């Protein structure tokens, strides 16, 4: 086997010539891999597909709140909400019927109507008579009806449909209809909507998150960690693990599949993007083999930190987050890894991220890149500026 070589070049930020080249031929664009959980990256993903059709999105299947919790409890299914929303973000918007598909997949049933009314709406969708499905062309319409019919058959009379995501119900039906595996239905929908990128769960397993806090408390379940559905954590997070169930601490783990390993090892750029620090980002790095695959990849790795307040980052400076990110990656890597876990932190040139310990970052071999990334008020990343900055690194 030929030896791997690292090629160095002078970097321009943003490299508009390089970015324009990708935008002219997105079907030949680079393989940029995102370890991405929730919705924080969806807007960036919708822009990113204009520059490359080969982005890879490994999303967390460990969410345990909202309507996902009901589906997980009923069917022992990994969380499908992030898969569904990322597929929609990457869908080819020129495909016939795509606006109707997008509207259906993102629609939630009412949280105030009666169960009989909601059951009637689900029945109309299964029969192809609901206004949300009548204009969707076949074969997509027939496929959606088939998966929804499976879900309708499997849920019992006590299943709470209030606020349920139709897209999640469709994905759940596909899971139940394919030997309790998500990959086949994700692949099928990706083809039908012509997703301009690849979306997969990091791990196709029905697991949850557990954390120990600095004060000794143990908290189980993503929905109890994020500070969005419950009160924010009272103490900083000390450590996190994958857990069996939500009733008691039962640490466990699973190795990633070979296709995930290959995707990580061969990506042209690896990005650790904005999102909940533990339940979105570090959770994606927890499965066995992720860290080893990252450190087998010689190409650049970049961290784009959150803006604003993330309850999961309580007590952590940006430098400390970098340290924990690297530690999460190298925990199962042999002492002498082939390549780095992280090379760059990408920051907006005016936003105050807090004090950085540049000496410590130098010892970690992590360089800081500052470039305009924010145009919105209140301060949010501009998805096009972020896309151009990332693509300048490839």
TrEMBL record:
GO MF: LPPG:FO 2-phospho-L-lactate transferase activity
Entry protein name: GAK system CofD-like protein
Organism in which the protein naturally occurs: Marinomonas posidonica (strain CECT 7376 / NCIMB 14433 / IVIA-Po-181)
